[in-house]
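Data follows
____________
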Amino acid sequence: MTPADLCTLVTAFFVTHLAGERNVSAHTTAAYRDALKLLLRFAAQFHQRPVAHLCLDDLGAPVILAFLSDLETSRRNTVRTRNARLAAIHAFFRYVLDREPAVASLCQRVLAIPFKRAAHPALGYLSEHELHGLLQHIDRAAPMGERDYVLLALLYDTGARVQEVLDLTPLDFHLDSPAFVRVRGKGRKERLCPLLPQTARLVRRFLAEQGRSPDEQAPLFTNRAGRPLSQHGARYLLRKHLAGAHQAMGSVRHTRITPHTLRHTKAMHLLQAGVPLMTIKDILGHADVKSTEIYVQADLEMKEEALHRVGTPSGARRRKPLFGQDLLAWLESL
């Protein structure tokens, strides 16, 4: 295949397949775009020729494997990020396989590259005391202070993913009783998240102070330049407020807290309050209850740890083994 063929395939993949046939979200398109951009730049450096001179044969399995290794070593990407890039590459080569059977062998070798198993860190969440300490530390009279407070309050109250909250517009809110907000999740699935009365009042006051109309369709949260707040910006402001609130949150001083931690926090608080698992699943927008079961497992582990800390009575007798000294003889007696 020629460089022109590769250019045609990449263009058709984004315009015809992703946008026209699958109608994927803008976030999915951006993720796939970034993965292919990184791959093409790496392949150009690998083969020592410009991107415009690359053809599909230059993106074989050995190059893909070298690219994935470079992501982890040179770019310091996590295994999860590496797997996300590979998923985008797989999607592209599945499209090529359907469209160009002549390169089936090359595509199948790329599609055979497996995902790496990633370590699952302990599920982190904040206690009610820690969450209160974080929110109370925010100086709401400071420039952008009220924005930060409303953002963190919504992240917790809705249990939504950070990008789902950043995508919210004033039009998405219904602030009269019963208050709720319309959230657009993965796969463009919409769900209604109920809001506590105090959160609804908070959003209403924030809109009034900003001079925003309830019918606006522009993002609710913006940066100092007036542009939509990014995930990087949300992480930055959370770290800033955590740094000042560490005195009130000593127990989480060395714990990695991200905006997603507030989602975990909401789920754990709901579970500990006795809310059914299926209800928590719907609030979080999980497609499968298996995704929600991690909170049950985490809660059970904490309870088991608490029981171990209590220990056993000091007078408890040691149980005798069911078999004697000669284990083989005991097995023969079965």
Notes: The chain has a mean pLDDT of 86. The chain has two domains: 3-111, 128-308. The first helix runs from residue 3 to 22. DSSP finds 14 helices and three strands in the chain.
